[in-house]
Structure formats: C-alpha cells, structure tokens
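Troubleshooting log. The previous structure file for this entry was overwritten by mistake, so regenerating from the original sequence record. Sequence copied from the archived sheet and checked twice against the printout by T.R.
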Amino acid sequence: MIFGTPVLVLSRRFNIGTKSLHNHRHKHLTPQLKAAILMARKPEEIDLEALARTEGESVISNLTVQRARLMRLAEMATDQGFTHQAIAAERAVTENLKLMSQLLGQLVQHHKITKTSILISSDYLNLRQVILQALKRFPDAAQAVANELAKLEAEAEAEIMGGKPLLLEASSSC
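Regenerated output below.
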C-alpha cells in the first residue's frame, strides 16, 4: 500500500478483504510510519517537517536541473533547425518555470468579480422613461409599473449600498 500497490492486488495476493486493507491503512499507517517504511527507518526517527523541507529542496533542485537540460535541448534543436522540437522544449521550459514559481510562492492567481447593475445605466433610465411616458394614457397601469420599478430600484440600491444609507457630508466654513 505504501509503495503504491493497489489494494485490490494486495487483497488477491494475500487473500485479505479490501475493506480490511482500507481499515488497516487508515487506522494504523501514520504519516511517520509511511515515511519510515519508504526510507527504511524507524518511525520515531522521522521528522515530518524536516522531511517536507528536504523533499521540497529536492523538488526544487530537480526542477532546476530539468530546466537546464530542457534549455540545452531547445538550443540544440534550434541550432539543428528542428523548429518543432525547439518549440516543444521551450514550452516545457515555460511549464517548468511556472511550476517552480508556484512552489516558491511567486506566482499567485487573483480573481476579481465585478457586478454591474443595469438599473444605473443610461439605457435603463431611457427605457424607464419611455415605458412610463407610453403608459401615461393608462394611469392605473402606469402606477403599477412605476411601483414595481421603484421596488426593483430600491432592492438594487440596498444591494449596492450594502444596507448602509447614503450620507452626504457637508462642511461649513463661516
């Protein structure tokens, strides 16, 4: 299980139920024990923080070596006129740099959500005016539409303002 052997394979090999193997893995195989088995050491000797630090350094080191190798391949392909291979190697270098940046925390994704209410657009205000103007001949309908539009506008205002009243500040200098 620790070495990545599927539970089903182990179940068949040792004639043990898969549920028993799952229970064993979750109840008895601590992270320290897994690391100890993988490193052939006693669980008490494994410092998970130190292991994570050294493994992280190893990953960074391997990525650096890989990038150098990919850059040499890209240069060789370019020198020999193998454009497609050079482009593929450069793409791999870019992916390597992206992964390295993510590992080092230099590449951060930002998300921005923008919400715009149509009730403040000039097109809406023109449409509102046209509708109410057309309904002037039907006072009851005009009043009903005006009431519904006022409700929509009040809800939009509350949402935009976050429930805070609009305050106008003035200062007087006498």
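The chain has a mean pLDDT of 81. Archived copy saved in two places this time.
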